[in-house]
């Protein structure tokens, strides 16, 4: 991985390796305007900011980085697709727990060491077009950052 890579790019690379997302394309902070033509797409999007949880005397910090995993795909109002998407959120949360347990975490930029990754919640945001749904899975990365 390039040492200039951002946390967000590292997360996109990490989730590109998730078998639950093998049916679609991964984007960073971008999703298509017309979902029906795109099929299933995923994105990792940044949340407003990181938070310093703890500062050490030597200048190192323990931080959290909130982000969202977004899934956009076609669905019908009959319900089976919504159930499938809710199942996806639960399965992604389980996959992330397993990755934490095995210490298989994102490869962060130089000077940053991942500590853990987890889901915080799931919601259906809105329908970008009539035959599509957009689902947000709120997540958080905890990591150590070396001081300057």
Structure description:
The protein has 148 residues and is an alpha+beta fold. It has a single domain (7-145), classed as STM4215-like (2-Layer Sandwich), CATH 3.30.2000.30. The chain is 24% helix and 39% strand. The protein has helices at 7-16, 35-38, 80-101; strands at residues 25-28, 41-46, 51-55, 61-74, 112-126, 132-145. The mean pLDDT is 81.
Alpha-beta classification = alpha+beta
What is the subunit organization of this protein?
A: single chain
Rg, rounded, reads: 16 Å
The CATH class label is Alpha Beta
- What fraction of the residues are assigned to beta strands by DSSP? 35-45%
Helix and strand run: HEHEEEHEE
Provide a quick synopsis of the model.
This protein is of the alpha+beta class and 148 residues long.
Helices and strands in order:
Elements (H helix, E strand, L loop, with lengths): L6 H10 L8 E4 L6 H4 L2 E6 L4 E5 L5 E14 L5 H22 L10 E15 L5 E14 L3
Parallel strand pairs: 1-2
Antiparallel strand pairs: 2-4, 3-4, 4-6, 5-6
């Amino acid at each position: 991985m390039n040492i200039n890579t951002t946390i967000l790019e590292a997360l996109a690379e990490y989730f590109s390796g998730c078998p639950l997302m093998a049916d679609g394309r991964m984007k960073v902070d971008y999703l298509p305007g017309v979902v029906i033509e795109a099929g299933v797409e995923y994105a990792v999007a940044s949340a407003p900011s990181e938070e310093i949880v703890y500062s050490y005397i030597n200048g190192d910090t323990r931080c959290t980085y909130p982000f969202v995993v977004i899934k956009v795909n076609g669905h019908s109002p009959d319900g089976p697709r919504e159930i499938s998407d809710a199942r996806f959120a639960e399965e992604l949360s389980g996959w992330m727990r397993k990755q934490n347990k095995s210490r298989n975490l994102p490869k962060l930029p130089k000077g940053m060491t991942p500590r853990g990754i987890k889901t915080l919640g799931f919601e259906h945001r809105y329908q970008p077009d009539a035959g599509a749904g957009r689902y947000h899975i709120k997540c958080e990365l905890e990591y150590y950052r070396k001081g300057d």
